Amino acid sequence: MKIKLPSRQLHIDALKFLASQLIVLHHLIAYGPISDAVSQAAPGVADWFFGQTRMAVQVFLVLGGYLAAKGLSPQGRAWDGSPLSAMGRRYLRLVLPCLVALVLAVASAALTRLWLTDEFIPAAPTWLQGLAHVLLVQGLLGQDALSAGIWYVSIDFQLFALIAVLLWLAHKVLPSTARAGSVGAGVAQTLVLGLMLCSLFFFNRDARWDNWAVYFFGSYGMGAAAYWVGCSRRPSWYLGMLTLSGLVALLADFRERIGLALAVALLLGLFQWLGQSQRSPWLPERLRQMVSTMGALSYALFLVHFPVLMLCNAVFAGLGLSSPWAGSIFLLASWLASLGAAVLFERWVEAPLDRRIRLAAMPA
Question: Cβ atoms within 10 A of the Cβ of 240, count?
Fold first, then answer.
């Protein structure tokens, strides 16, 4: 099945592709009897993959900030749009496909419980739990997640809302004569980068904030800064400032996740500085198409891989399998089935919903 792709940036899609696969691998290695069987063969390797692949979420945090800056402030200036309208569109684009995926997750969990009893399988949801997921506040209310990784959808929405409000505030506090020039850009970027530094040096160092956007805004803000490198009159200075901020934050409190976020942000900033085009002529057309397709599938894969993982674990347990070889085969089968489900979900759920939201947002 061929996915219709808009104009895309290949390096963005490549990062989405890589990060989404690592997140799927993390969950495959983390949960269920398939994971237990694979771990028997190489427990040290499995433990390393479990610990390291989960940091792939930092790639999405940086990309989220980069794409938010591109959409709301492509010239690095204050934003004169409506935060509520922008948040509403973002909410619908995140939540509508997410709710369909949650229905699949609840149904998959119910089927899985017929053959397998394991703590990673979510219990049947309560009404409060379901409502909390619809409103993206399940983490804030202490409700158990109905699917692995669903916390990120809530955080992504919080982060987008936060940067939208900051860029809008920069527009509101300035006189009309200063909004469009360098002063407007300076105030807008100062607000965003100032909160980025607060996150890096304070909020991100305290796990009690990890249900709130401010905990993750360090990585998100670095992504926004990476995009604005291309808008700066002195991109080398801007990139140097980003590098220095990240290194000082690491010296103050070394966190591998922040090191990875900084590396991704610097890579994106370098592409912006060099003015890379959306296409890479040195790559074969077929490879470019594959990377773009997989990048476009990343959200669908993120949403549907856990229901697939539960069902594959149920089949594995139902067949009475436990050997490392059988576990390895089922792990590969789970990964391939997740990719297939993501293709179908993107084609029949995510893309149609996204088109409806875009059409509804257009002026009459």
Answer: 12
Q: What percent of the chain has pLDDT over 70?
A: 92
Integer Cα distance of 294 and 18 in angstroms:
9
CA distances (Å), origin 88, targets 92, 159, 357: 6, 14, 10
Q: 359 vs 19, 68, 94, 348, CA distance in Å?
A: 30, 20, 16, 17
* Residue 244 binned pLDDT confidence (cut-offs 50, 70, 90): very high
As a whole number of Å, the CA-based R_g of the chain is: 21
pLDDT of residue 38: 93
Instruction: Give the three-state DSSP class for 333.
Output: helix
The answer for residues whose C-beta is within 8 angstroms of residue 293's C-beta and 6 or more apart is 3, 5
Give Cα separations from 59 to 129, 141, 194, 232, 343 (angstroms). 29, 26, 21, 23, 22
What is the enclosing helix (H) or strand (E) of 231? none
Q: For 142, left (φ over 0), alpha (ψ -120 to 50), or beta? A: left
- Quote the CA–CA distance of 101 and 107 in Å, as a whole number: 10
232-241 tens-digit pLDDT: 888 999 999 9
Dist. CA 352–CA 172, nearest whole Å: 36
Q: What would the pLDDT profile of 5-38 be if each residue is shown by its tens digit?
A: 445 789 999 999 999 999 999 999 999 999 999 9
Does the pTM exceed 0.90? yes
